[in-house]
Design goal:
Keywords: FAD, Flavoprotein, Oxidoreductase. InterPro entries: Acyl-CoA_DH_CS, Acyl-CoA_Oxase/DH_mid-dom, Acyl-CoA_Oxase/DH_mid-dom_sf, AcylCo_DH-like_C, AcylCo_DH/oxidase_C, AcylCoA_DH/ox_N, AcylCoA_DH/ox_N_sf, AcylCoA_DH/oxidase_NM_dom_sf. Belongs to the acyl-CoA dehydrogenase family. Helices cover about 45% and strands about 15% of the residues. The protein has about 425 residues and is α+β, with helices and mostly antiparallel strands. About 50% of the residues are buried.
Length: about 425
Amino acid sequence: MAKADSEKPDFKAPRPPELLSPWRTERRAALQAEARAFARDVILPIADELDPQKGEMPRSLIDQMAEKGWFGITIPAEYGGMGLGVFEYCLVSEELARAWLSTGSILARGQGLGTQTLDEERRRALLAKSAKGQWIGSIALSEPTAGSDLAGVQTRAVREGDEWVLTGTKRWAGFAQGADFIEVLARVRDPEPGEPRSAGLEPFLVVKEPGTFPPGVTGTVIDKIGYHGFLTFELSLDGVRVPERDRLTGLYGDEGADADSGGFASVQRGLNIARVHTAARAVGVARAAVEDCTAYLQEREQFGQPIGQFQALRFALADMAAEVGQARAYWQQVAHLLDEGLPAESESAAVKLLATEMAVRVTNQAMQLHGGNGYTTERRIERYWRDARLTTIFEGTSEIQRRIISDRMLPRG
């Protein structure tokens, strides 16, 4: 469906956000410009056509992102990756999410995900495939009764010789059918007395052909109200056999994890990166709303003049832009901390909380500024509004982020 809010040449376009010192380097600036142009010229027309149909992004689009090297932004150069950090990963993701949230998200299915195998030679080969966008995965952590409480995972993995047999139900597995593999968090044993509830949880690699589910796995599509571009599934695992070599030692390229460190801890470390990534994606969505509103306030006329001449609307737009800029500066700061090797757990939770709640406010205000036109599928605003709402939920709800922050500020009795 064609969108009515395409920019017209006579409109004053908003000044695009640039990298400011101390974060700016020439390489980062070039990467940002490349991703911005790709999002505008390639992704946005596809999103405008497919999102109203709840359509999936075409494989050709994923392949184009792979050719850019973006699935290997954080993978070391020795494996064919770009050898960059969390900052650059989030920088590209913000730009892509500005056009379509799901394209900023699909990059997380690379970045060395699903490569932490026990076999070092195989690990290197999978890292090379991941960097090329040829090893794209789905993550199956949550369950119908274990979401925010990840330690409550009940999917079982039972050892039988050189294989593990997985049985259970997983929910919110995005891109599960299209992926090359599915990361499954499963319980290999119950916690011993005195151990944390997370003891005995390990990640496993379920290898599959893209477009299919492997033997023992069935998937039911979850009908979402937004976040289109790829399908999200509830998975049933019934005796899924995984060889010992596909028991993983960590997630998200965590070099510090080993076979005895526990899969749950590695998941938690990866979630810190995921939360900053979510903040960057939320900023991208909110920025889209600000940019579309800037054009619309000049296009729409009432009472004989563009509505952008009315002070109340001008000030609303200014507040929106200020909030987006604040959240962008914060995610960049926290990404820098992670790249410096600092855990930044509270900071990651805080930026995820603030950026996503900001995105909900800004997209809601954008719909208000568009009036009745904002409450139609003729404009992109409703897409931003639907997608922003999800960012306060996935990768840990806003309430969970508040708990993380407060638990590190106050003792528990």
